[in-house]
Amino acid sequence: MVFETDSRSAMWEEFLALTAELGITVQRGVKFSAQEIARAEWCHLLGTSTNGYPQPESTYRERTYDLTSACPTCWIGTRQAAPFRMKVAPKWGRRSLTQMVWVYDAWFVEPQAYREVFEPFGIGSREVLMRGGSTIGNAVQLVIDEVVALDEYRQAGERCETCEQFKWRVGLTDFAPGPVAPPQGPIAMSEQWYGSGGKAFRATLVRQDLVAAMSAARLKGADLHPCIPRVDPDAWLRLGENG
Predict the structure, then answer these.
(1) Which superkingdom (predicted)?
(2) Helix, strand, or coil here: 127?
(3) Phi and psi angles of residue 38, each rounded to the nearest 5 degrees, phi first
(4) Closest Cα partner for 72 from 165, 173, 7, 178?
(5) C-alpha–C-alpha distance, residues 182 and 139, integer Å
(6) Do 211 and 38 meet the contact criterion of CB atoms below 8 Å apart?
(7) Distance CA 46, CA 215 (A)
(8) Looking at the chain, which terminus has fewer C-beta neighbours within 10 angstroms, N or C?
């Protein structure tokens, strides 16, 4: 069952007390209004669909990444050096954005959506290949070169026993951590790494004007999660209510 309530309300506290009394496990999520998303200076871009696994599944890392600085246990430090390969071309339907399983910091876009929404912001693209090496005509990958530190407030995660680097867990139940300093461009990756076990990826951030363009074009295939505003969140929400 799914229940929606404001976590700052008395009803939320009553709900938690009742579930604890009944021995029910609660999995928390968060939902933001279109107004909250539109007012955010930066948002995290979170995928809602995937197009299979990167190819070849057993050797895609070696074929796609420069692994010079990567940890062979947790895979923090990978850097893309070649196009991704897909088993089948995306079947877009109403979607314009997709990702691949295991690879949550690579974004694949329907070409018309790229030309109309992302290219005007100066965001580059990279070709996507079929498993055999031929170019996929109905998808391009967004090129995201800028990396910025986030003001990360979450503590849950894991430290790799091999490289001793830390990966944060991805769950969010409030505003997302924002950049310590504003990125120069309209889209950027986090300096921090996220995931667990052998999965490691960076968070993707998009600027307010790019968010507006994506929303105006009604792009589907991803959710937008607003970052913590620079003012008190409650005051920020009251400002939104007053227009």
Answers:
(1) Bacteria
(2) strand
(3) -65, -30
(4) 165
(5) 29
(6) yes
(7) 14
(8) N
| Encoded tokens for 128 | 């996507």
Backbone angles phi, psi at 72, to 5 degrees: -75, -5
At 57, is the secondary structure helix, strand, or coil? coil
Residue 118 belongs to a domain: yes
> Any residues with CB less than 8 A from the CB of 160 and at least 6 apart, and which?
71, 73, 74, 76, 166, 167
Instruction: Tally Cβ neighbours within 10 Å of residue 96.
Output: 24
Q: What is the DSSP letter of 120?
A: G
Domain extent, residue 79, equals 28-241
The Cα 115–Cα 159 span in angstroms is 40
Asked whether residue 173 is domain-assigned, the answer is yes
What is the C-alpha separation between 69 and 79, in angstroms, rounded? 8
Can you tell me the distance from the alpha carbon of 107 to that of 97, in angstroms, rounded to the nearest whole number?
A: 7
Q: Answer positive or negative: Cα dihedral of 93, 131, 100, 119.
A: negative
CA distances from 22 to 9, 15, 54, 142 (A): 21, 11, 43, 47
Q: What is the pLDDT of residues 168-210, one digit of tens each?
A: 988 777 899 999 999 999 999 999 999 999 999 999 999 999 9
Kindly state the tokens that stand for 122.
């100066």
- Reported pTM: 0.84
CA–CA separation, 17 vs 11, rounded Å? 10
The structural domain count of the chain equals 1
Strands 85-86 and 124-130: parallel
Detail the DSSP E strand segments found in 114-237. 124-130, 135-143, 147-148, 157-159, 166-168, 187-194, 201-207, 222-226
